[in-house]
Amino acid sequence: MPKVKAYYGDTAKDQGIGLHIDPQADLQELLDAWQPLCDQTAFTKQYASNSDQSCRACTHNCCDTAYVIPDIIAFKKMAAHLNFSPAELVDTYFQPEKRNIGLLRMLPNPCVFLKEKLCSIYPVRSLICRFYLCAPMQGSTEQLIYLLSSTGMAATHVYARQNGILEPPGGAISSMDRLFLELFDQYCADPLLEHFLKAQDYCDIPLKPFMDSSGFINK
Ligand code: SF4
Ligand code: SF4
């Protein structure tokens, strides 16, 4: 019996993508339940170019404009997958001007890993890439996945600073960059960060503390 169920609610009270989560579940179990939504055709994806609404066949690709900062688990997996050290990964695939102001943003417009309209690192893509769907989401679900993604991104910045890959924040920044830096400052002070910093993989990260902190409500 899966500990996490993802579903699409279409009643006035239960509208959009929702989750039912056993408090014993871990993040990998949430990702396993979420993945089928990407190619599910039973609900409308607002920007899908294809009539069956699957991400796989979509050519209006959200990856063309995405602002992607990987969570720490994906960051380490990407380095291992590409056979790079973390520093080589950053040197090769991240925006130097953002790195200079203390941010780890992957090269964008389109994403550096988008090849022929498909993600070339799909199995190791980051939480923000896995969770993004251009479809309505229930508030409680959105809060939970936002907290998980943001905490994971903040952990990448702590890890990169501790390992001399990233300078502390500084210099002229745009409002979007400021938003991310302020967000990461906030999450770096949160005890939830430790769950990402000490985890080897998503299965090591319990969902319960994130459910409690985000005010997640099981339906
Ligand atoms: S989430 Fe992205 S890939 Fe999926 S349908 Fe929407 S725009 Fe296309
Ligand atoms: S890593 Fe993959 S899924 Fe994420 S933005 Fe890049 S191409 Fe898209």
Mean pLDDT: 92
Percent helix, as a range, is 40-55%
Number of domain modules? 1
Radius of gyration: 17 Å
Hetero compounds: iron/sulfur cluster
Approximate shape:
globular
What structural class do you assign from the helix and strand content?
A: mainly alpha
The counted number of beta strands is: 4
Strand order within the widest beta sheet: 1-2
Q: What does the main sheet amount to?
A: 2 strands, antiparallel
Uncertain spans: none
Bin the strand percentage. Answer: 5-15%
Order of helices and strands: EEHHHHEEHHHHH
Plain-language structure description:
The chain has 219 residues and is mainly alpha-helical. Strand 3 and strand 4 (118-119) form a beta hairpin. The protein is globular, with a radius of gyration of 17 Å. The protein has 9 helices and 4 strands. The protein has a two-stranded antiparallel sheet with strand order 1-2. The protein has helices at 27-38, 72-82, 86-93, 96-99, 127-131, 139-162, 175-188, 193-198, 208-214, and strands at residues 4-11, 14-21, 114-115, 118-119. The protein has one domain. One iron/sulfur cluster (SF4) binds next to loops. One iron/sulfur cluster is lined by residues 63, 66, 68, 111, 113-114, 119, 121, 125, 129.
